[in-house]
Amino acid sequence: PEYSILGICDPHISTIATTGTIYRESPSGTTKGDLDGALENAFPHDLPNGKELLHLMPISYTLDDIPGVSRPIGMHAEVLQVKAASIMGGTSPLNNLKKAAKNAGVNAKGIVFTSLCLSDSILTPDQRQQGTLMIDMGAGTTSVTYFENGAISCAKVIGVGGNNITNDVAVVLGIPYKEAENAKISSGTTEPWRASSTGVLPVGGFNEDEVGTISQRELCAVIRERAEEIFQLVRNELDDMGIQPVPTLEVVLTGKTSTMQGMKDLAQDVLG
């Protein structure tokens, strides 16, 4: 029968680092079975309350006293240790997703963290290997995922995204949400100083026949304020993860919200 894989990306996503070790007596080189055994020993048995394991992913290996080995198969060692990332989701959101799929008649085989799938589409093997930060700016969330040695090392999802920008525009400028979304898409930037101080945009009102205007500079100022806050939240998460933005760290922005003019420059300003 046909089946589907469900994806989830919500603020309950988190990661913890674990390690697993095996002691080898065989004189032959390390095998895939050895790697599987070490990873099995890295399984986090004491998950926080309200959390379920989505993925257990190896990051790197230590062979005896040699750390940072990414491809240990065939290499000799008496002690093999794996550093792994455990990606967890909230039990309630996962159960709600399963229930929604069942009610829709979807045969769900499993659930994955969507940033894992997204990275396969937009990151090269070199980017995943060398250390890359992927920021996915969606409608309702912004996910922050760090890759090293070809795998996810840590990840966090912030419950703020493009919808919050639209809502700010609607509230501050006093226009319907739909009109705010249209204005954001058609004329929004994170650089209000580039907009004419006298430039205006036509917008519909709350009544069917109502027509008005808004200042493009004010529109962009509202957008910048919220976008700046989003990147500051990202910066806070990086601090919690122990990731320091340095010139050699590659940052990849993705998601519809990230395509707005000036968003890349603003990210550089805030993240450093």
TrEMBL record:
InterPro entries: ATPase_NBD, Cell_div_FtsA, FtsA/MreB, SHS2_FtsA. One of its GO terms (biological process) is cell division. Keywords: Cell cycle, Cell division, Cell membrane, Membrane. Gene3D superfamilies: 3.30.1490.110, 3.30.420.40. One of its GO terms (cellular component) is cytoplasmic side of plasma membrane. The keyword Cell division applies. This is SHS2 domain-containing protein.
